[in-house]
Structure formats: C-alpha cells, structure tokens
Amino acid sequence: MKKKAKWSNLRFSVLASGSTGNACYIETDQSRLLVDVGLSGKKIEGLFKKIQRDPKHLDGILVTHEHSDHIKGLGILSRRFKLPIYANEKTWLAMESQIGAIPTDLKFQFDCERVKTFGDLDVESFGVSHDAASPQFYVFHHEGKKLTLATDMGYVSDRIKWTVKDSDMLIFESNHDIDMLMMGRYPWNIKRRILGDQGHVSNEDAGEALAEIIGDRTRRVYLAHLSKDNNMKDLARMSVQQTLEKHGYQIGEELGLYDTDAEHPTELITV
Fold this sequence. Notes:
Helices cover 29% and strands 24% of the residues.
C-alpha cells in the first residue's frame, strides 16, 4: 500500500443503502468509482445530482454480488455511459442474465482477495458469507487512509475483522433488530435465512463486531443496509452505541455513528 501522507483527497457518499437498493460512490482526484447499482438508472442519476457529481465521469462500477438490490440498474448505467464493470467470475455468471448484454470491452474480472489499482486508489476485495454466488466487498486505500464497505455479511468472520480493522471510516451492515424480525410478518423460511450465517448482520452483532474492528484512527461508522421492515435508524444507532459503550468506546466528536438512507445520499465526506 502507499505511504501515509498528511492529507487525503479520498471522498465518498453512500448514495443509497437498504433492503430496497444499494449504491456507494468513492472518488479521489484521479479516480471515480461506483460500488453497486441497486436502483433504477433514473434514480441513480438523481442521487448523483444531489451530491453534484455526474455518473458519466465514472471510471468503473464494482459489483459486490448479483442480488437485485445491488445490480438493478447496473446494465442500464453501464450501457448508457459506457462504464466498465468489475466483478468476480462466479458473480459474472450469476448476473449476466439479469443485466442484459454488456460489450466485451466493458467486462472485467476482479477476483476475491485481490488488490486492483485505479489511478491513485488501491481497492482490496474480500469475501463475505452471504447466499450469493461469490459475494465480495471492498476496502479502499489512498494516501494512508482506509475506507471499508462491508454489508450482506451473514456473520463477521475473524478474517473480515482482520481485513477491515482500524479503518478510518466504515460503512457497516446493521440490518435488523432481532425482536422486530421475529415478531414481524415475514414467513419463517425468510426469517431463518436472514438470521443464518449466509443472511444479514443484526444490530447487536454489528456492535459486537465493531468493538473488535474500531481502532485508534477510526472516526466515523455509517450503519448500512437497514431492513425497511425489521429495523429503524434510531434503533440501530442506539443498539450499536450501547454495545460499543459496553466495550469502553465513547460516541462523540472522536468517534461518530451515522445513518444511511434508501432514498437520500449521505454528504460527500473526505476520509
């Protein structure tokens, strides 16, 4: 990785996050990337306008996995702006029938547990436990700064904890409140899937994992991929905060917890 510099120009916005659609924008002065396109092309373009950016300037789209809330608008956006798509081999095979024809010169393979460089940005991929073909998420390294995007994890393995530990900023799954899920309207087979090792991370488990992951340089944690039916922003934030405080962390100016939204982007923040 590159040597640490005093200043960083690594910036990001969580354009949308939740069970209805996901997309995250990352940029430096030399590189602009989008992770996932889980909304319609029209909605994605609208979200880009809100952060005063244009998707036509993207250098590429990274794909985490083939579920529709991550690739709904992928083919449309790629074809409209001639954007390269990066995904591992199994994900390509699983999603090709869903995204329509993509020109060969826009199709690239980015395997799991690899590092790929885009201009001045190093992107590290890591595998997660989820019921998809070969799901992977990403750590972004730039001028000594470290930004992690990790959702759809099922459970947070020791390998994931080691990979993302002491990130400057984390976009981290806090999908559901267990009581809300168990008392909710979902059929048992769906509840069992969500609660399983290939499902999603609960608020409490997110807090426990973050207690091992947060380091001295961690400044912001964005709670992501909240379930529309089985969670609430205030509940997720309160649950994670209580768990972190139990482990000795103080939430405030030095370490903040932030919401993400399925309809509105977060502010474009410098890491």
